[in-house]
């Protein structure tokens, strides 16, 4: 088994399932290159069963010979796999429902059929590709006994990795940790956790899976994906390094540019408070915080912003306070008496309310100059 946790990006597959998102070949190539150059471990690049256009696009990505393993997503259907083989791709992910809910009410089949169909597809794929991921759809609602049976069969058939999918995003970290430990104990195959963010716990659940012994995590840039999205690459990568003290091969300084690239390709703005890549996440406005970082960055520093290509900054708002304004004026060589300072602070507060945003240094200096 691999010791370092693998980051398996599915922006070009599950990310493209987000409403209104469709990448053209130039965008797919640009994103794939950026992620590969940053050091991502694996790219899931599409679904060949969608048709000739998708097969052609994936074939062109494969022809780039990027320094990363490329895989495609497939249902446990032989025709899906046949389409994947046409792309020249290195590996395939074969996904099959494992919860009784989906086996009975989506497939209209039973557990025996699932095991048989899974086996046929794995044996077929082993003749054509060098790497096989078995995806267990809706595994978070599956019976534990049946999951154990699936794992045993997959190991016997020589699968390279098994993906446990929390397809509906219903799990929480404690359940992930205690439930998945049992799977790790019985699996001789590396396990991957595929989190969805329906309840806002995709990153936390991904970390819990690693703590339980999982060796790979499924992620997307910015958390892009079906419904509420997937576990965000940037959050998971930084949390692995600074919360779990895990080795991360990915160049974290590239996260911001990759996030912006995907934002532009999808026409989706990055929320200002988005962890890691949001515009405001290293900006301090409260006078208490500003005073604290001036004395020692560690007072209000979760991790070094320089590690992700960012830096601390300050802005001015309702809670900036007198000390922050005076510090700026002193740095600029400007002195006012007490009454003028009180008047200045009131003007700054009014402007903050008017603009509905924190003020930058140039905004403050404009108010100061007008008061001179």
UniProtKB/TrEMBL annotation:
Superkingdom of origin organism: Bacteria
Keywords: Transferase
Residue ranges annotated for the Pyruvate carboxyltransferase domain, each copy included: 5-256
InterPro entries: AIPM/Hcit_synth_CS (IPR002034), Aldolase_TIM (IPR013785), LeuA/HCS_post-cat (IPR054691), NifV/FrbC (IPR013477), PYR_CT (IPR000891)
A Pfam family hit: HCS_D2
GO MF terms held by the record: acyltransferase activity, acyl groups converted into alkyl on transfer
One example of a Gene Ontology biological process annotation: carboxylic acid metabolic process
Family as reported in the entry's similarity comment: Belongs to the alpha-IPM synthase/homocitrate synthase family.
Record's protein name: Homocitrate synthase
Organism: Desulfosporosinus metallidurans
């Amino acid at each position: 088994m691999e010791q370092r946790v693998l980051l398996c990006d599915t922006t070009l597959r599950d990310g493209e399932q987000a409403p209104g998102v469709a990448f053209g070949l130039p965008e797919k190539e640009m994103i794939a290159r950026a992620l590969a150059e940053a050091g991502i471990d694996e790219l899931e690049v599409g679904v060949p069963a969608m048709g000739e256009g998708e097969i052609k696009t994936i074939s062109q990505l494969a022809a780039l010979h990027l320094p990363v393993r490329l895989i495609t997503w497939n249902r446990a259907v032989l025709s899906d796999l046949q389409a994947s083989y046409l792309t020249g791709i290195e590996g395939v992910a074969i996904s099959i429902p494992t919860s009784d809910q989906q086996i009975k009410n989506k497939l209209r089949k039973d557990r025996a059929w699932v095991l048989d169909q899974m086996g046929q597809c794995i044996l077929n794929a082993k003749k054509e590709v060098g790497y096989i991921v078995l995806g267990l759809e809706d595994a978070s609602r599956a019976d534990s006994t049946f999951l154990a049976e699936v794992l045993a069969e997959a190991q016997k058939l020589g699968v390279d990795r098994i993906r446990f999918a929390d397809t509906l995003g219903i799990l929480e970290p404690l359940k992930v940790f205690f439930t998945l430990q049992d799977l790790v104990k019985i699996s001789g195959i590396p396990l991957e956790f595929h989190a969805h963010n329906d309840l806002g716990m995709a990153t936390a659940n991904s970390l819990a899976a690693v703590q339980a012994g999982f060796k790979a995590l499924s992620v997307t840039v910015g958390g892009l994906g079906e419904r509420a999205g997937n576990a965000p690459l940037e959050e998971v990568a930084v949390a692995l390094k600074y919360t779990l003290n895990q080795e991360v091969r990915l160049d974290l300084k590239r996260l911001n540019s990759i996030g912006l690239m995907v934002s532009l390709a999808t026409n989706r703005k990055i929320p200002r408070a988005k962890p890691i890549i949001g515009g405001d996440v290293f900006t301090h406005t409260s006078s208490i915080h500003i005073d604290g970082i001036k004395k020692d960055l560690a007072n209000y520093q979760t991790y070094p912003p320089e590690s992700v290509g960012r830096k601390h900054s300050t802005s001015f708002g309702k809670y900036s306070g007198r000390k922050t304004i005076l510090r700026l004026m002193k740095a600029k060589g400007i002195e006012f008496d007490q009454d003028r300072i009180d008047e200045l602070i009131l003007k700054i507060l009014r402007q903050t309310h008017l603009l509905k945003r924190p003020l930058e240094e140039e905004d403050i200096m404009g108010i100061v100059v007008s008061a001179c």
